[in-house]
Amino acid sequence: MLAKQLLLFALLPLIQAQETVLGVYIFHRHGDRTSKSWPPTALTDLGYQQVYASGNFYRDRYIDGNASSAIFGISSDLVKNSQLNVQAPVDTVLQTSAAGFLQGLYPPVGAALGSQKLANGTTVEAPMGGFQLIPVNAVQSTASSANSENSAWLQGSSGCNNAIISSNNYFYSQEYIDLLNSTAAFYQSILPAINTTFTAAQDNFKNAYSTFDYVHVSEIHNATIPFGDLLTPEVLFQLQTLADNHEFNLAYNATDAIRAIAGSTLAAQIVQQLNTTITGKSASQVGIQFGAYAAFLSFFGLAQLPAVSVNFTGIVDYASSMTFELVTNATVSNTSYPSSSDISVRFLFSNGTASQNPLTAYPLFGQQDTVIPWNTFVTEMNKFSIGDQTSWCNACGNSTGVCVATATSTGSPSAQSTVGSSSGGVSKAVAGVIGAMVTLAVILGVEGLILLATGLRLVSKKRLASAAATQGTETGIKS
């Protein structure tokens, strides 16, 4: 007996130090879709399967009764919609992707749980085997059009004037001009395979993403591509790598932060949602946002992830997701909730549906550790987040529409959140300000900066030189 007690006392510190997940925020890309070259775009059956599988993966990780990293207080079978905050722009592909993901996250519960007895004694079963209805908040920007996935170039509708100017400046850069010239022969060599959609004048690096999107979708869904023999693995790789370079430069620039407006507004939403989890003591534990790959690239740049791996400069694949986990080693119960000083954040990323691609932790902001204190996370995010209307209008240089009221204001009010020492999170007043703007601003960023994408793989720039050598084409991309 004494030996067992000694063993229990020895293990007690380890038991007490067990990590608890308090909440998560997931930013997710849509699944496989039809080509933007032939609108309207639509989620394919393959895309549906991808997002459903991803939702099921996150269920196994966070929701299920036997989840590997179960979220504190989460309802495991019957969904409690108060615990979820799910958003997607007013776009067919993104909305349906979110719906498919949620079917995997909370599948039908069957007749036992999916039924209720009425006052007259009648039992009513939910349709489709207990299918669970989960609302997806449809967010429509006042500056952007609906069905954004139909458009190959959305910078003009981002609504942020300075971001539009910044991205357009890339087309005057020496790097862009060099690539436009050095890849001209390469693009013309594949014209016979794409000339039903692109003219010779359009077949160049300026349309790097649109060209790859068309070819990429065709490779997945069209078994009889005209002159398909021209599209060798080396050519496909080159098309992808050039599109990666093109899109990252439109989404982020180290010396011109406004270009990454998508990542800045997304950062504000992440902080706002996670802070809501803390201040509400995990009453609302799960935030999910479906959006475009532009926001991934912008956030990657702002969070200094390219310094971790050059692969963070490439277009993310279909159904990719990045996840922010609120974790603590403190005791958590219905009567005891940790303070902000005992809470940390872990960032994870999966390139492609998480059911098939490992969800891997990476360090943010040039830090060494993959788990960083909540207060540090908020401070670092606030260095580039834009989370209120006045700050967004000032940063974007806008003076019309929603920005009329702030057009004459001076200075640049801070968009930063503050950490309340007693509340355990960002002060509720500041959180409210962030929340008021983020519905507008995150979609301006998510829908706006650049070409909304197909699912391409993250590509190491070091591999570009190999592809260029294979093609005999000098790309001019700097590693």
From TrEMBL:
Span of the signal peptide: 1-17
Gene3D superfamilies to which the protein is assigned, alphabetical: Phosphoglycerate mutase-like (3.40.50.1240)
GO molecular function: phosphatase activity
UniProt keyword list: Membrane, Signal, Transmembrane, Transmembrane helix
Stretches that traverse the bilayer: 429-453
Entry-linked Pfam families: His_Phos_2
Homology family: Belongs to the histidine acid phosphatase family.
Protein name in the entry: Histidine acid phosphatase
Organism: Oidiodendron maius (strain Zn)
